[in-house]
Amino acid sequence: IVVASGKGGVGKSTIAANLSFAFARRGLKVGLLDADITGPSLPTLLGAAERPSTRDGKIAPVERHGVSAMSIGYLVDADKAVAWRGPMVMGAVRQLIGDVAWGALDVLIVDTPPGTSDAHLTLAQSGIVSGVVIVSTPQKLALADVRRGAALFSGVGASILGVIENMAWIETPKGPAPLFGEGGAARLAAEIGAPFLGALPLWPDLAAASDAGAPLPPDHAASLAFDAIAAALALALRLD
Ligand code: ADP
C-alpha cells in the first residue's frame, strides 16, 4: 500500500507509520518502507537510528514496534542522500525493495515523498503496488498532483483505496474546532472517484509520540482511528 500526498507536511509519514502499527495490531506481518530518499522520516518516527545488520547477503529490516522497517536514513548519513537526483533516487528505491530481507509479509506500507516523483515512478514500475492511500489536509488539496499520482498507479493496475483527511479539526474546551475549512478531502475523494476513508483531528499526543519515536497506546483515540482505517483497507485488499 503506497501512502501518497499532493503536498508535504500533511501527515503522510505519520499516517504511514501509524497504519503499519494498526496492521501489526491486527496480527498481520507488516513491513514499512520509507521511499522518501531525500527526506526520510522513518528513523525519527520509529525511534531507531542504528545501522541495520545483513542477513543472507541482504539488508535486514529494522524491527520496531512489531513492524519491519527500512529507510535510506538507516543506511547513509543524513546529509548525503539529500542531494541525490533522478537515477540515484530510483536506484535507492529499487534497492530498498529488492535488497532488503523483507521475509514473508502480509502487507508492505510505503511512505513516499510529496507529489509525483522518481520514487513513485520506480514503485509503479516495480509491480508491487496493490493500492494507494492519499492523505490531504482540508486545504492542501493539490488536485492536479493527486490526479497525476492516481493515474500513475491506476495505470499499473493498483486501486486507489481512498483519501484520508488529516488535521481536520482540534478539540477545544468548547468542542471541536475546524482548522483549515471543512470537507475538502471528501470532495477530493468524490472528484477522483475514490472512497473517503475518514477525517482525523490534530492530536497533540500523536505529534509528541511521533517526535519521541514511540506509538501511542492501543486504546488511545488516535490508535482506534487508525485501527478503523486499517480494517477498511484490510477488507478492500482481502488481507485477513
Ligand atoms: P508529511 O509526511 O506529509 O510531510 P508528517 O507526517 O511529517 O507529514 O507530519 C508533519 C507534522 O505534523 C509532524 O510533526 C507530525 O508529528 C504532525 N502530525 C501529522 N498528523 C498529525 C495529527 N493528526 N495530529 C497531530 N500531529 C500530526
The number of helical elements comes to 8
The major β-sheet equals: 8 strands, mixed
What would you call the structural class? alpha/beta
The bound ligands are: adenosine-5'-diphosphate
Instruction: List low-confidence stretches.
Output: none
Residues in β-strands, percent: 15-25%
Roughly how many Å is the radius of gyration? 17 Å
Outline = globular
Mean pLDDT: 92
Report the helical percentage: 25-40%
User: How far apart lie the N and C ends?
Assistant: 15 Å
For the biggest β-sheet, the strand order reads 5-6-2-7-1-8-9-12
**Beta strands, count:** 12
What is the H/E order? Answer: EHEHEEEEHEHEHEEEHEHH
What does this 3D model show about the protein?
The protein is an alpha/beta fold and 240 residues long. The protein has eight helices and twelve strands. It has helices at 12-25, 42-46, 86-98, 118-126, 143-154, 184-192, 204-212, 221-236, and strands at residues 2-4, 30-34, 54-55, 58-59, 62-64, 67-71, 107-111, 131-136, 159-165, 169-172, 175-178, 196-199. The chain has an eight-stranded mixed beta sheet with strand order 5-6-2-7-1-8-9-12, sandwiched between helices. Helix 5 links the parallel strand 8 (131-136) and strand 9. The longest helix is centred in the C-terminal third of the chain and has 16 residues, at 221-236. The protein is globular, with a radius of gyration of 17 Å. The model has no long low-confidence stretch (mean pLDDT 92). It binds adenosine-5'-diphosphate. Residues 5, 8-14, 41, 166-167, 200, 202-203, 206-207, 210 line the site of adenosine-5'-diphosphate. Adenosine-5'-diphosphate is lined by residues 5, 8-14, 41, 166-167, 200, 202-203, 206-207, 210.
